[in-house]
Amino acid sequence: MVRTGMKVTAALIALTMAGAVFAEMGPIVIGPGSYGQELVTRVIHKNRNVDSLTLYVAVPHTSNPQAIASTTGKTGTPATATAKKVLVNGKAHFDYVAGQLTATMPMLDVSGKNAGVMTISLKGSSRQELEHEALAIRTYLQRNTSYAANLVQKALWDKNLPLNSYAQDLVDETLARHRDVLIMAIHAATPKNATPEILASNIGRIGKPDDSDDARVVNLGKTNLENNTGLQRYEVELPLNDSTGKRIGALGVVFPLTKNIDEKARHEEAIRIRDELARKIPSAAKLVETTY
């Protein structure tokens, strides 16, 4: 029992550190309006077999994981016994009965660190196919989660900006081609936002105002390079031009910070990605056009 308790404590520390250490949170949001709920909504729209999906996360300044987003609308409830067990042992649990798969799996962030637990229910005639689908959904959530506390941030910081923007399509398409990139974000001022904000990313925060580091890139055209040792990430933020060569904002590109990282090569890769995007941006206004 003592060993199990130690495992639970370690797991909860891993989940809560994200909220305690990595600020930039803004208000904590659970359920509707949260980034976690936005991800759940996306999963439901893209995967017809999904019956239900609930995400359990240790909210910053708390110690026990709770439902922070769900298709059932029930949030704030403690993690189920199965979810707690998965949190301890780190092993996915699958049950398949009468054409229904229930899967409880550890959630990870883009760096592969603990981010919580998800419980998902899917309908279908093939257990193997449903297990693959559940794992694919877990991978999708990982690809779009910066860290655990990211899931209880606001999904939309500026209501003037769309979530289904041309900028978001650019980010999604670019990340699909560059699998070694952990995070990407486009910052710019547009006719919909007078000052630079995040227009698109794979970690939410759409409409979040730029901080002083972002503003320096946007306004002065200077590149930011940062080793984030806490999150084990190498961050490159470059000035972003449109296809005419006019500076319109900034592009953040984040790579894994490994022991033998070649920072110069990563910087050059970020420049290539930035230039690839610039050719597809006729103007800042285009970035906030809706695509559906």
Q: Mean pLDDT, nearest integer?
A: 91
Low-confidence stretches: 1-23
What Rg, in angstroms, do the CA atoms define? 20 Å
Quaternary state of this entry equals single chain
Number of helices: 8
Q: SSE order, as H and E?
A: HHEEHEEEHHEEHEEEHH
Number of strands: 10
Structural class computed from helices and strand pairing: alpha+beta
Shape: globular
User: What is the helix content?
Assistant: 25-40%
Distance between the termini: 53 Å
Strand order of the largest sheet: 2-1-5-4-3
Largest sheet: 5 strands, antiparallel
Query: Strand fraction band?
Result: 25-35%
Short description:
The protein is an alpha+beta fold and 292 residues long.
What do these coordinates show?
- This protein has 292 residues and is of the alpha+beta class.
- Helices cover 34% and strands 27% of the residues.
- The protein contains eight helices and ten strands.
- The strands form two sheets. It has a five-stranded antiparallel sheet with strand order 2-1-5-4-3, with helices on both faces. The protein has a five-stranded antiparallel sheet with strand order 7-6-10-9-8, with helices on both faces.
- Strand 3 (93-97) and strand 4 form a beta hairpin.
- Helix 1 packs across helix 3 (81-89).
- The longest helix has 20 residues, at 2-21.
- The chain is globular and about 60 Å long.
- It starts with a helix and ends in a 5-residue tail after the last helix.
- The model is unreliable at 1-23 (pLDDT under 50).
